[in-house]
């Protein structure tokens, strides 16, 4: 029993330390269909602190159903106090930030590419043409579509971060939002919160 408890304690400590590993280095980050560590730090009533959880939810529609996919998310400026983490406590929305939204077809070829800008609330959305679910890679838009940061117009906050995989490709996650119209069903996917941060001259590393 004592040996089992010691093993369990070690695993808990290991997993806890892994959650707070910096995500700024994209070279070792997983691909666009992997989910990042959840952000649980910061006051619970602070905007933007909760991240999209990993999701295995399937879009509950027949593969031949005609759908219109919309991908949405927000772009923020990470506060210097949380640099090197995935924490978005005290972050601010960036107006006019550019992101790329890419979807792949059933043969894994990029066929849907858009460069879109965020509004005054940092919110962006990218609508796609009507097609069938089977037209998307693996018959699943959540496996076919991803979002990457491109540029920030804020000269004081234009350094890329990989928060929620904004550099390597943020997955478009299905969270149960869809509505049916007379000719097609609209499916809304979420890329979560992506972020730039101030450069080192404005946001030096502590210590």
From TrEMBL:
The keyword Cytoplasm does not apply. Residues 1-23 form the signal peptide. The keyword Signal applies. Residues 24-47 have a biased composition (Low complexity). GO terms for cellular component: cell periphery. Keywords: Signal. Residues 48-58 have a biased composition (Polar residues). This is Uncharacterized protein.
């Amino acid at each position: 029993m004592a040996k089992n408890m010691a093993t369990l304690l070690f695993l808990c400590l290991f997993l806890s330390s892994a959650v707070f590993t910096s995500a700024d280095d994209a070279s070792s980050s997983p691909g666009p269909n992997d989910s990042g560590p959840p952000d649980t730090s910061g006051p619970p009533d602070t905007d933007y602190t909760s991240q999209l959880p990993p999701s295995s939810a399937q879009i509950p529609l027949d593969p031949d159903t005609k759908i219109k996919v919309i991908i949405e998310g927000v772009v923020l400026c990470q506060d210097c106090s949380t640099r090197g983490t995935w924490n978005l406590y005290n972050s601010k929305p960036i107006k006019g930030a550019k992101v790329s939204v890419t979807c792949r077809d059933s043969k894994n070829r990029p066929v849907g590419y858009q460069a879109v800008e965020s509004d005054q609330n940092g919110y962006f959305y990218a609508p796609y043409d009507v097609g069938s679910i089977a037209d998307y890679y693996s018959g699943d838009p959540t496996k076919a579509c991803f979002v990457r940061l491109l540029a920030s117009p804020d000269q004081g906050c234009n350094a890329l971060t990989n928060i929620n995989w904004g550099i390597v490709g943020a997955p478009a996650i299905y969270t149960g939002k869809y509505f049916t119209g007379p000719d097609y069903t609209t499916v809304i996917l979420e890329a979560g919160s992506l972020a730039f941060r101030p450069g080192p001259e404005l946001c030096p590393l502590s210590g």
